[in-house]
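Dear Dr. L.,

I hope this message finds you well. Following up on our conversation about the binding site, I have prepared a predicted three-dimensional model of the protein together with adenosine-5'-diphosphate. For your records, I am including the exact sequence and ligand specification that went into the calculation, followed by the structure tokens. Please feel free to forward this to your student if that is useful.
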Amino acid sequence: MSEVDSKPFSSKYDIKEELGKGAFSIVKKAVQKDTKDEFAVKIINTRKLTSRDVQKLEREVRVCRLLKHENIVQLHQVFQEHDVRYMVFDLITGGELFDDIVAREFYSEKDASHCIQQILESVQYCHENRIIHRDIKPENLLLASRTPGANVKLADFGLAVEAMDARHYYGFAGTPGYLSPEVLRKEPYSYPVDTWACGVVLYILLVGYPPFWDDNQAKMFEQIKKGRFDYPAPEWDTVTSSAKDLINKMMTGDQLKRITANEALQHPWIKNRDKEASKVHRQETITVLRKFNARRKLKAAAHTVFLVTKRSSTFFSSRANKPTTPAEVTVQEEDSGSHTAEEKEIVQVTQRLINSIADKDYKEYSKLCTEDMTCFEPEACAQLVTGMEFHKFYFDHLPASPSAIQQSMITPKVQMLGDSGAYCAYIRLIQTVNKEGVAHSVSIPETRIWQKFGGDWKCVHSHRSAGGANPARSPDTPSDQ
Ligand code: ADP
Ligand code: MG
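The resulting structure of the complex is given below.
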């Protein structure tokens, strides 16, 4: 299997339903015509890729071909037909490990120990084969099937690199909450980055929330660099000291002192699971993990929007926190597309206005509108509303906010109307997670007319249509590239 198979994929397989989407790929079910065996095929259009992306794809193929392990998603064949690359993998039908855990009736430390053991087995095997995965996280931990006790499978080798003899700086890659201190410090690194990420995963497996979290990513990175995390009461009081000891060893700040995957597998909490790990059911962990899962999915959906808009080269901007990309920094930079400086100003002032609504900041909102602004909006029952009183009423009576909200402006189109006027048409995407952890999003088409008074842009008219709601989609594992 050293050469790319040149025989057309389509003559051997029938393509079925979509299973998932990645940054540059779409994954579909495929049935082998002769045997009727089912597979997952990752389909990538290579024509649109830059040469750097092609290199990354080649790297992923090389790495996947090398690895054969019961806890790793197996690549079987690769085809290239014109501009389309097909990668045929084992079909994974059990979904994400973390989604399975929250559906369980019983879940204890002992179960967590069994999960992390399988993850560590896959990681140890990668390391033996001189591969650093670099993106160990819940989205990439799948279950082979729906059968209870099915194997955990490590997936998505899109960021994996072939290790050099010595530590080396392979670039800033991974997913923010799982990045190790040495990657954040941009120091030469190696296999221990994976063990660190396994430690983060183990922490979550035990209490349902991550060790490092801050809405402000810079602050979170500071915490990680200090290696500062704790075990808050009461949820950690019921965790054995043996489990905490293993986490401490996996999340040791100094990469040279950190336990290896192999050593972690020898730790009593894993090796003598029956004796060392608690068998008490952890209901609170399941409840908290459910919310954590919902938030991750929301982020994944936002990230997909980001990539789609970025690739079609339009301007995208989100609220203060940028979409959390598991990315090499180069792709995190927002693309200002084809907008001129003036048009960008309009996009920015529109974003400010949207933020003021999300923040329920009437003072800021009223600064950005004229006293006698007009608007059409569904709530006004097909009447043209004039003046700010109508808006103020809504600001004064806005309900308590959901647990999490993010508003993004998608595909804004700006047209200047002379020197002192402009209109901006866009879709406002509102994403929320309610207190039960259920994710929801609404897209609303909106148009605003802006006029310049002195040096300031003010909104003189807006027109909003009723939004289309869609429940949160299944997660698109956001990868870098
Ligand atoms: P990318 O590297 O482009 O992000 P991934 O390898 O992460 O692509 O695959 C994208 C999505 O497709 C995954 O999140 C998952 O939902 C689905 N998927 C990938 N591989 C399989 C597989 N072997 N079986 C079932 N679903 C898969
Ligand atoms: Mg992926």
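In brief: The pocket of magnesium ion (ligand 2) is lined by residues 22, 156, 158, 477, 479 (CB under 6 Å).

With kind regards,
A. P.
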